[in-house]
Amino acid sequence: MSAVHPSRKAYVEDADEEMLDLASVPIDRDYAIPSTARAGIAPEKASAIIEQMDRKKKAAAIIVPTDDGRVRTRLRELGEPVTLFGEGPADRRDRLRELLYLRQEGLDADAMDLDMRDTSATPAAEEAEDEEEFYTPGEPELLEARKEIAKYSLPRAKERIQHQIANHKIPLQKHIKHRRALKEDLAKFEILGSQIAGERPMSLARFSPDGNLIAAGNWSGTMRLLSTPKLEEKKVFRGHTDRVGGISWHPSSTTSLSEDLANLASGGAEGNIHLWSLTNDKPISTLSGHSGRVARVEYHPCGKYLASASFDTTWRLWDLETQKELLLQEGHSREVYTVAFQGDGALIASGGYDSIGRVWDIRTGRTIMILDGHIREITGLSWHPDGYRVASSSGDASVKIWDVRMVQCVATIGAHKNLVSDVRFFNGPRSAVGELNTSGTYFVTSGFDDEARIYSSDDWAFVKSLGAHTGKVSSVDVSLDGRYIVTSGHDRTVKLWAREDIEL
Questions:
Q1: Mind telling me which SMART domains this protein's record contains (predicted)?
Q2: Which run of H or of E encompasses 297?
């Protein structure tokens, strides 16, 4: 005879032939919801979910202001954050409504969050929990660095926003005329010069801040300094024992920084990061810690910190004054290939061979957005000067534009016929308040289809193809004054591009 659940015995054994009254109906409060049971959700957690749905239903009946300003004022009165990251007016009203309901019922919001924890997790659930984000304690030096980065970034963000507000007051027709003229100028870019810069394929080329020098690294482990526009070899740096990956110039290099100090950084496939002066062909310092190839390095806008992306599946943050590793950041399941700082210095984006990008708030250490959409590896990242858009290039032949405010991808561009190896927004000096700005109006890409390309940032439209390499193009960059574009390729050359009417 099969066993009968206790809650069912009343119907089988104890029930009279006559109809039962309501008080005699047995109640089972430990029932399992079939859909949640099949999904591996414990009954306790399923009950908590139902309770939360009931709370939301009751909260919906609470009247809250429709004016967003009044909603913010009410949240401030309750001692709650006025706004959360990525939160819109409708989300803010819903949050206020739920907070008012919890206070009305005498409940604590934090306690409600605790109720949703699964206290009887199955092995499958425990395995899923292992994949969730986790945070590890940091050193006091990291805390101080986060505070310093916050102090640095907040005034810059305020200034940027004020400039954007003023720029929006310029008449639309003036903007259109300016952008049309800019596209015509971009279409005039032609090859200006070419130079063999290594014994093996080139991996990367980057302009100095003043645009007068190009640092170009290759697979043999050497890095050369070339002058613009003649591409004359000025110096050869030797220090890496394997291919050079990342190259990054100090933000003040070639402008106000002494040539005897560390002016640029490079990463190598042997796992080391070298810091170089402009007067010595040997590294003046080496940062060690990565257990895999260093694919990219990037200076923080303040110049005191350096980020590095590595094939050991981590990216790291270094203090250049103490030459200590401040942060070892996990979060990618495969090799991390690229990192890029936002212009304000508050955020950093990382991407790699897991096809996933992440945007991190360096001030808190939290992931604020996941760039999930590419179907192959992410090879490059570049922030728009507006501070809230970031471009990613990928092996799937596309470039995606991500909006951090909207927390979503806003554009996908079929940029090349093959892998897109690099992407760079034009990040020039900011114009005076009320004047038309050129910075951020276009971006450039390089690809394994032997071309580099220019795209408009207005409508993401193709503008110009730069085709002169006889092999895969590995990198591309734009000088800060917008006069030059540089490309490097597997044909061992560095090529310089400029408008045909430019005055040299």
A1: SFM, WD40
A2: strand 294-299
